[in-house]
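Please produce the structure of this protein holding magnesium ion.
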Amino acid sequence: MALNCGLIGLPSCGKTTIFNAITAAGAACYDGSEMNRAIINVPDPRIQPLVEMYNPRKTIPATLEIVDIPGLKAGSTAGEGRGTRLLGHIKDVDAVLHVVRCFEDPAVAFEYDTIDPVRDVETVDLELMVADSQTLQNKIDRLQKKSKTGDQDIIREKNDCEKVKASLDDGISARKQTLSEKEMASIRECNLLSLKPIVYVANIKSATDSANNHVKALQAIADGEGSEMVTVCGRDEADISQLDPEDQEEFLKELGLEESSMQRLIRAAYRLLGLVNFFTKGEDEVRAWTCCKGDKAPTAAGKIHTDLEKGFIRMEVTRYEDLIELGSESAVAKAGKQRLEGKTYEVQDGDVVVVRFSPPK
Ligand SMILES: Nc1nc2c(ncn2[C@@H]2O[C@H](COP(=O)(O)OP(=O)(O)OP(=O)(O)O)[C@@H](O)[C@H]2O)c(=O)[nH]1
Ligand SMILES: [Mg+2]
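Below is the modeled complex.
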């Protein structure tokens, strides 16, 4: 399943505009109550040379899912109904793209009279923390009942949850708390919103605006917590995304941008989530897959099909660079550079793989 990035932020900060810029989906901007979803292809310059080598019937790039979530504002996650729905959408995402308005334009209505990224980030963060605090309280209540038996593991788990909750109540997001592995294990099932990795997206008017004071303030927030920040000219890039691909490059250059915001956001999300691409190839298809840095061979094989994970025997690995340099698989094998790896092998970015497995009975 494709990894999933969710756009969040205050109402009218530009989420749907940026969703359109990234996905070229052309979603309407006037209705903030709807969720928009689109799958985007992850551009990878290594696919084309593989296609030239194998001449496959199909070529399939890696994909990411982008979700545009209706605006959050102070108090919006409280209570039943809309609040619960909103939080559910955010719970489902692997990474958060937090859009912050960093452009001045009196003609475009906004939640507040002033532009202030620090205030906006704090407002949205507070919503996430209030929701997380409640999630933890529910778990603490459950553990409280269970701990009456004196089970030390349960008491420890409850203590961990109480510690994280106390810091949240002091205004420290879970991702900013330095948590031990043990503490992380205790809170894992809570799937806390304020623990999700964040890319801040500064919505600006034009590329010349990319170092204005609002952007600098947002960058300082991102740096302070080890998150990433990307600037996007929301409205202009949404317009450009509707053009033919050949024209897009020219218009991006005119805006002073080398790459589209989609490419920059994908790169930031990959860095932040520690993602890598590996490849499968053959006459039938050349295909890119995504897994996490450090994933062992069976886990990566499981991205292709669960049977490959369950029945995993070994993985034949060729490095993309060797394949291109030597020109063919047989040349790589002759040079002794094809490897057979077992269950403990960590798949690397650029591995071209064949999985050997025993099919389920
Ligand atoms: N001038 C300017 N206006 C923009 C930019 N980005 C978005 N807007 C305008 O801001 C308004 C709100 O944008 P949306 O993308 O709908 O905002 P949203 O965050 O999706 O809002 P909700 O879904 O209601 O939470 C629209 O009128 C956009 O045209 C930008 O980069 N420059
Ligand atoms: Mg919207």
